[in-house]
Amino acid sequence: MPFRGLIEVEPPSPLRYVIGAAIMMIGVVLPVGYMMFRNKRVPTSSSYSKQT
Fold first, then answer.
1. DSSP class of residue 11?
2. Predicted confidence band at 26 (pLDDT cuts at 50, 70, 90)?
3. Which residues cross the membrane (predicted)?
């Protein structure tokens, strides 16, 4: 994989920060977007009644 070589060659601090930020953004945006998408399709009242 060329990416591994790039990460090893480049200075670690900036790349680690960028990669970590990207992973955190994806980890936060994906579940939040998924929840919002489901909430938009299914009314909140029915989902709340199903949970309780």
1. -
2. very high
3. 15-37
